[in-house]
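User: tokens in, sequence out, please.
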């Protein structure tokens, strides 16, 4: 604790540095810049129910307070981590009393995604009749975590991770603000130290200020007599940082989507980057290799059948070696998938055939395609007329049909003009020409 703050109860730097006006708010220019939606709303003095969705440390709670202040409304705050229906009812009662006095109320619920559906429903009648304006904050996708009735009554605003320049400005402000900041006269950051701390914060303002507060306690007296947070101290503090990752959450699925699409787009460098981001964030390597197996079938298929075998081999290698040695085999497989020729022809064909199978009638197997393992079946004609392709000229029984009679012919599989499917397409074209001509296919 610094001398400047020794006479009062300790408050973390991140709390002391909360903006007291929209002018002090850092980041979110897409919402708060001149002419942007929340800036216009604040200037009008009006309010409406909203959901603030974004990563930690992007200013959701602070923004809710400032918007309430700009509208002249009283501000009530609940946390879904601790609150229950009883707390909601108490807050509503206060809002009703304020309304009788001609005051509006903004009820802010932090971590709204932690409330279940029935708890979220408790707000609906009071939002509907204007007893209160509801603001919910969440790090999770509201589309999945907030019920539809509440979503229909609240506008969603997406907050973004802070840029390095925003974080650097915030750190510098904490150095020079003697009232709310660090309270150490003349404390400076060595060149480069600011960027190290900003990068380690990973878009999170709270984390940036927490890192600065720790670094300030390790500041050294420089040659000029001033307290200095050296580059060495900043790198040491920053070493404890971690990249943002949420197992099973939006970031998790965004990153696996980026990995899959980098593979599909034949960019091995981007694919390896997203692979490493996920591994570094703590993703189970077996999850990634399962998804890579899917990629091998969905996006490469018969254009390079070796891709599927290679992925399965990498899976087996990881099972044998474990982590971290086995992760190299996963990287090898991902890089191969990215550079392999691409075809989703089998994937498209499978979906089309599955649609016919699900939506069509239960059509019978043609008599000539049925087996006749018993005399009774043979006497009924099962298998009669079937021609064994290996005994036919060219290895194809010309004119023999394989679909149910009521379906006619279908073409699901259209080989892509890439990789091995070039040759597969040529072979299919020869079979088709042979059927039309009534002659054995040419080799």
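Assistant: Sequence out:
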């Amino acid at each position: 604790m610094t001398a400047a703050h020794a006479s009062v109860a300790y408050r973390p730097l991140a709390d002391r540095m909360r903006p007291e006006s929209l002018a002090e708010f850092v980041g979110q220019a897409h919402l708060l810049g001149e002419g942007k939606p929340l800036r216009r709303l604040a200037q009008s003095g009006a309010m409406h129910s909203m959901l603030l969705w974004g990563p930690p440390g992007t200013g959701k709670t602070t923004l809710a307070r400032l918007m309430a202040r700009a509208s002249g409304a009283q501000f009530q705050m609940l946390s879904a981590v601790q609150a229950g229906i009883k707390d909601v009812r108490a807050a509503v009662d206060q809002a009703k009393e304020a309304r009788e006095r001609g005051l509006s109320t903004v009820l802010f619920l932090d971590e709204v995604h932690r409330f279940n559906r029935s708890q979220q429903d408790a707000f609906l009648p009071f939002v509907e009749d204007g007893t209160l304006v509801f603001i919910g904050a969440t790090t999770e996708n509201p589309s999945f975590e907030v019920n539809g009735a509440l979503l229909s009554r609240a506008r969603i605003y997406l907050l973004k991770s802070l840029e390095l320049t925003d974080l650097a400005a915030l750190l510098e402000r904490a150095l020079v603000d003697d009232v709310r900041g660090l309270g150490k006269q003349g404390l400076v950051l060595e060149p480069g130290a600011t960027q190290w701390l900003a990068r380690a914060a990973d878009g999170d303002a709270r984390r940036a200020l927490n890192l600065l507060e720790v670094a300030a306690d390790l500041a050294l007296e420089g040659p000029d007599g001033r307290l200095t947070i050296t580059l060495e101290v900043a790198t040491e503090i920053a070493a404890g940082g971690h990249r943002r990752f949420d197992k099973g959450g939006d970031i998790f699925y965004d990153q696996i989507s980026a990995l899959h699409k980098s593979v599909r787009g034949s960019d091995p460098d981007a694919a390896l980057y997203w692979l490493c981001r996920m591994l570094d964030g703590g993703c189970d390597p077996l999850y990634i290799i399962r998804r890579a197996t899917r990629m091998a079938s969905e996006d490469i298929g018969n254009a390079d059948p070796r891709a599927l075998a290679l992925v399965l081999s990498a899976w087996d290698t990881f099972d044998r070696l474990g982590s971290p040695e086995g992760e190299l085999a996963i990287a090898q497989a991902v890089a191969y998938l990215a550079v392999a020729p691409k075809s989703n022809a089998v994937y498209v064909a499978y979906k089309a055939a599955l649609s016919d199978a699900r939506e069509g009638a239960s059509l019978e197997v043609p008599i000539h395609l049925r087996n006749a393992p018993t005399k009774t079946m043979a006497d009924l004609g099962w298998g009669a007329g079937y021609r064994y392709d290996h005994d036919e000229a060219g290895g194809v029984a010309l004119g023999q049909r394989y679909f149910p009679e009521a379906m006619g012919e279908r073409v699901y599989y259209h080989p892509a003009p890439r990789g091995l499917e070039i040759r597969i397409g040529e072979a299919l074209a020869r079979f088709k020409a042979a059927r039309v001509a009534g002659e054995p296919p040419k080799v």
